[in-house]
Amino acid sequence: MKAGKYAAGFLLSLLLTGISFWVVTSHSHFREFAVIILFASALLQIVVHLHVFLHVDSSPDSSWNLFSLLFTALIIFLMIAGTIWIMYNLGERLN
Amino acid sequence: MSSETRTREFGFWIYLMTDLILFTSLFATYAVMAREGSISAIVDLRQVFLETMLLLSSSATCAVAMVFMERRKKETMLFWLAATFLLGSGFVFIEIGEFARMIREGYGPQRNGLFSAFFTLVGTHGLHVSMGLLWMLVTMMQTWMTGLSSSLQSRMSRLAMFWHFLDIVWICVFTEVYLLGSLS
Question: For residue A59, with 0-12 CB atoms within 10 Å meaning exposed, 13-18 middle and 19 or more buried, which class applies?
């Protein structure tokens, strides 16, 4: 049963990786479309990995793991968005 | 699973979360540096695809090794762990080759801020994978010599966590650095 879950997770991540590489190498899409597909498939693949291989779910056993992960996600968002916001703004003032 | 093992796994999980913050600062730096340039001219996407496949497959073989550990099949577990080790080594091997080629062609970390950020980010991930490989080698030797004791199983489950975590970081690396960098 566990093995089946792993197999499904592996096939799903192969598919999502394939989509990511295909959307870039086929050169036949608008840039915005390709960026959205890239981010969506990366996010989906991260969720698949977290759930299938790192056993993060909504059970009481992993609630602390889930909460610390969500808190880390908040910090990551603040760091990435804040850095890009400030540095790109400064970059535009320099031009 | 004993409560001690569960506590240790949670402690290790917290370490992984802090490691994620470390990678975040490197990703943020790279995102700022990538505004002024692109690495697409020097990067071979076929090689990156091969690296991705190796790391993804190694995550799967690592999961299979865990399944056989829970069934207490020592030899089968060691076989799948050895497969994981080989796939991971292939990844590091290709990455070192890529770094060497880039430096040879004048695109080393000294070239500009973009390449400094590239080598720091991708190199830090590569170093993590290399440390994981060392850990795996030690675990395989211990399993071979002392068998599947409960402390070894506990360590093995944390090694698997570390390995799957590195795969998640790699998803972000190939998406932001290689694929997004090849778009513009």
Answer: exposed
Q: A6–B184: do the CB atoms touch at under 8 Å?
A: no
Q: Which amino acid is at A35?
A: V
Q: How far apart are CA B99 and CA B93, in angstroms?
A: 10
Q: If you measure CA to CA, which chain A residue comes closest to B182?
A: A24
Q: Give the distance from residue A33's alpha carbon to the nearest chain B alpha carbon, in angstroms.
A: 11
Separation in Å, CA B34 to CA B52, B118, B130? 22, 9, 26
Residue A24 shares a structural domain with residue A4: yes
Whether B84 has its CB under 8 Å from any CB of chain A: the answer is: no
Q: Domain residues of chain B, as ranges?
A: 42-183
Cα(B182)–Cα(B48) distance, rounded to whole angstroms? Answer: 12
The number of beta carbons lying within 10 Å of the beta carbon of residue B151 is: 12
A6 & A48 share domain:
yes
pLDDT in tens, chain B (184 residues): 678 888 899 999 999 999 999 999 999 999 999 987 888 888 999 999 999 999 999 999 999 999 999 999 999 999 999 999 999 999 999 999 999 999 999 999 999 999 999 999 999 999 999 999 999 999 999 999 988 888 899 999 999 999 999 999 999 999 999 999 888 6
Whether A3 and A49 share a structural domain: yes
Contacts of B152 (CB under 8 A, 6+ apart): B139, B142, B143, B146
ipTM value, please give it. Answer: 0.92
Q: At the fourth CATH level, which superfamily is domain B42-183?
A: Cytochrome c oxidase, subunit III, four-helix bundle (1.20.120.80)
**End-to-end CA separation in angstroms for chain A:** 58
Task: Count structural domains, chain A.
Answer: 2
Q: To the nearest whole angstrom, how far is the Cα of B64 from the nearest Cα of chain A?
A: 7
